[in-house]
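Backbone shape codes:
***
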Amino acid sequence: MIKRYLAEFIGTFVIVFAPVAVSASGIIGKVDHGLLISALVSGMPVMAMIYALGSISAAHFNPAVTLGFALAKRFPWKFVLPYWLAQMMGSLAGAGLGMVLFGVSSGTHVPADPSMIVRNVGLEITLSAMLMLVIIAVATDKRVSGTVPALAIGFAVVVGVLIGGPITGGSMNPARSFGPAVFAGGAALANYWIYIVGPFVGASLGAILYEKIRLDADSAKGAPDGLVKPG
């Protein structure tokens, strides 16, 4: 399992470092990259890391996704905590390297209006549920081509950031928000709870919903395949 944990660390490191680096370069160069670039630099590294590491760890890179798979009985509970640890350490490493290289805290998620708690949490729940629905659909069906999951999940992340970016940042991932919040402190750390509650609740709902509507249990598999029996 150590190779799976290392893959989760590396993948999470990359998907955190990429948006942190782009944000930092914009701050240093005084360039406004805009929402579309933010969405692409969030989704494309996810896509790339799924292609690169999906065959090793199933490319969760997200504690909420790991929880969703476990609740859906597509991932063993005994590996949940180690996956979470690898993901959170990868997040810290990604944000930490960004701080070392660029000297500024960047890539944080802070709600546009922290007082709008229901809207902020509700949006993160909704976006995370949508993302998890896509992930579990393409990652746990033996009939899905190996080229499909990375594209589907990457584009789902892009859409989520386009929707949630102006409101909450469109995190959908407690690990993605963790490292940058630790290094930035202040409002980012004070509001980090939103990026725990929203994604965990949303991913749980998305995973359970898909299992309820799954038509062909015989074609189901675990994520990673081989760790759990189908059905």
User: Anything to note?
Assistant: The mean pLDDT is 93. The domain at 2-219 is CATH 1.20.1080.10 (Glycerol uptake facilitator protein).
